[in-house]
Each structure stands twice: as structure tokens, then as C-alpha cells.
Specification:
Length: about 500
Amino acid sequence: MGITWRHRVVPAAPLALALLVATGCDSTPVARPKPAAAPPAPAPAAVARVCAEPPAGPAKAPAGAVTVDPGVVGDLAAKTENNPPNTTFWLRPGRHRLEPGEYDQVLPKEGNTYLGAPGAVLDGARTNHYAFGGTARDVTIRYLTVQGFTAPQDEGVVNHDMADGWVIEHATIQHNSGAGLMAGARQQLRASCLRGNGQYGMNAYKTGDTIKGLVVEGNEITGNNTDDWERRQPGCGCTGGVKFWAVNGADIRGNWVHDNRGAGLWADNNNNDFLFEGNVLEANDGAALMYETSYNAVVRNNTIRRNNWVEGRAAAENGDDFPYATVYVSEAGGEPRIRARTDRIEIYGNVLEDNWSGITLWENADRFCNSPANTSTGYCTLLVKETGRCARPGITTAPLYADCRWKTQRVDIHHNRFVLDKSVLDCAVLCDRMAVLSNEGTSPDWSPYKGDRVARAITLRQDNRWHDNAYVGPWTFVAHDAGRTLRSGQWQGAPYGQDAGSTFRTRDGG
């Protein structure tokens, strides 16, 4: 279910002023903002250092709790089965084991609570696939370390069956295969450590695409994708700190997402109504944040530093001139017809420092509902429920001409601080770019989006705006296609009109 972000682009001919003419992909433009005073520097976000300093659980069993003995193999699963719903279990200090079958696991009942004493560890011993599964709602797990489980690719160890209403707090989920954690509707993940898991820290996917009201707050998410799935399955798009799939409503606040192999946070395929606020995203091999084929989000007051060094540098060394960026918006935008807290993608108040490039807004002209280039097999946009409608002759005219595309539109990037010192990155070229672009549409044969009409739309007519930002360092800008590199004055001038009210200090360093 993953989608790679490595989209090759073909340079197009120079853009003329005549390209201001609207195309069928276009949204109605709004007036450009008036120049403003230099924006103040945003304050850096606080760092959630959870893994090194996990809080201790209760040293004694709470009143009425069932005590679980680490000396009895399978004690946790057996006592869960033999007690009624809404029971609290207290795991004594020590290493707790399940029965040795690969599918032996704990199957909570509705409302159960699992509390770990100081030093309590539930260990799969590289034998059990899953720690906690089943469909019971409103389960709580606190102060417990879960490690050593062997979930298969795209599956998870905790909440394996994606039940709703789970609360995971002050937990450490580490050194497992697959994803440390799956997600259900109304799930809350708080103040926990997701560390060193084989694929994801969390895979926020639920069968039926019914996740709503997800909260991920105050966690440390680090060192995940130890099994390096992109190397094992090139182009799988199945790696990183957290992956979100078809989630409607999520608050991602105050997390420290760092040193993951791949992207830090990746929202992929028909997500909507996201808030990314106050996070520290740093030193991830790929992008800090990817928002792909999705809708309506706010990205504000985050600190984003030293990301995308590995993947960005590898692409440059391979001669790829695509502007791989640290915040990557791909076929995603604001859509007023889809209910959310905003009808735009708003990116503001963030500090981006010494990353491999900045923000790229991209739209693949060949990728749309019912196109072979749409690797989200079977999915259509949230505006068109039946994939088969996106075909000739209907797709050639309104409304399907616009609604069959995931469009990068209504993206508002303002009051951010972008700092780049190339000596820190040891970089000469291709690490200094902001971009808004598409490729030449070429396929399939029946596509109505051939040529550069999508490139014209995303660049000029879909209300994608940078303004009132502060730049420090030798930034360059890319518009329309990957072969068109601009200086700041060209970026601000006609026909692009970007970064009104922004300031530029071009020397390296901060």
C-alpha cells in the first residue's frame, strides 16, 4: 500500500506569460498578499525525550488489579481470558513471556487496562508475532515495554487488529519486526517510545479505512525501519517513523521524530484534516514530513532540521535533478468540499534548518484515479467514489476532469524560517531548493492531462503561495518543471509572484 516519492520529471520548454490562461485543472486564484514587514523568527519546539527517561509505572498493584507473574509463561494471556471486561492487570517487574506459538498473543476484553511495574517487559523472544490483538475497544496500556515480536510486513505488534479507542501511554515499543503499533479510530498514543522497529514505529492503517480522531502526542519515534524495506523492495513506499493511510482527523503534536531510516512522518492516500504542531523532526534519512494524495492539513510551529541528507544526497549522486525536499506535498491540497478544520494546506511558523532542500509541491500529471500511475490500487479521490467513472468520455469535461485528480492546490506557506549552510551538509548543488512543479503528461493514451497543462496549473492557477518567509542561505527556486531554476528575484517576479513580503539573506549560515 506504499507509494514511492521518487518521481522523475522531464524538463519542459520555457514558460511564457501567455501561460496565465486557465486550464481545466485550475482553481480560481486569489489575490496575492501585499508585502509585509520581515517575519519574526519562530520559536523552536520542545524536544520529547521519552526513550532515555521513561517514567516508572506503579511499584505496587493498584486496588482491585490482577497481578501478573513473569515467572509463569503465558500468565498474562491466561488471566486476560479468565477475567471479565474492564479488568486492570498489573505486570510485576521482570520479563513476561507468552506461550511459544507464533500466533500466541494477549486478546484483551473491552475496557481492560494493562499497567507495567518498573522493569516490566513483555518479550516476544523473536517467537511470537503479536503482543496484543483482537477487536475489543477502549483498551489501555501504560508503563509497559513491549519488545522482540516478529510481526510480518505491514502488520503490527500492539493493537494488531486495529481496534478502536485504545490508549497507549508511557509505553516503550521497541526492537520488533513489522510495525510496533497499529491504529484504530479514536486511538491515543502519548508520551511513549517507539524505537528500533523493523518497519514502522506505527502503521496508522485500519481495514475499511475508518480511522478517525487519532492523537499522537509527546512521543519519541526513533530509529525505525531497521529492516530497510526500501532496499528489500525498491519503491515500496513502506518505511519510516509513522505511516498514515486514509485517516480522517489526526492531531500529531509535540513528538520527537528522529533518525528514522526513510521518512519521519508520512501521510499517504486519502488522509484528511491533519494537524502537525510543535514537533521536532530531525536527522531522518528521508523527508521529515510527506503529505501525499491527501487533503486539508495544518503544519505549524515545528522544528525541522538535518533531514533528508541520505536520500537527497543519493538522488543527486545518481544524477537525478528532481527537487527531493524535507517537506514534500505530493498530489495533496486544500479542498473546501471535504469537511475539515481547514480547507487548505497551511504551513506556517516552522523553523527549517540545514535540511536537504526545503518544501516541494509536486503533482504527477500521469497520476490520477483509474490511471496505471496511481499505485494506490483500487482507490479513487474522495470526490469520486467509483473509480470506473474516471474514464473517457466523462473525464474530459467538468466535473470529473478536475475531481479525478488528487490536486496540489490551496497550499499556503508563510511565516517560516528557512536556514541553510551548505558547509554543514557538505553539499555543493541540489540541496538548496524550494519547488512547485509537475512533469509532462504522457500516459495513458486516453489521459486528458497530456503536455504541460498540469505544470501550468500547479505553478500558476491552483493558489499555491509562499509569502512572508525568512530565508538565510543560498536558496534557489524551481517552478513548472525540474529544469527551471530561479533566483529569488525571478521567483518573486512575474509570472510566478511568489514570496511577497519575504526576506532573503543569501550568505551561508544562520
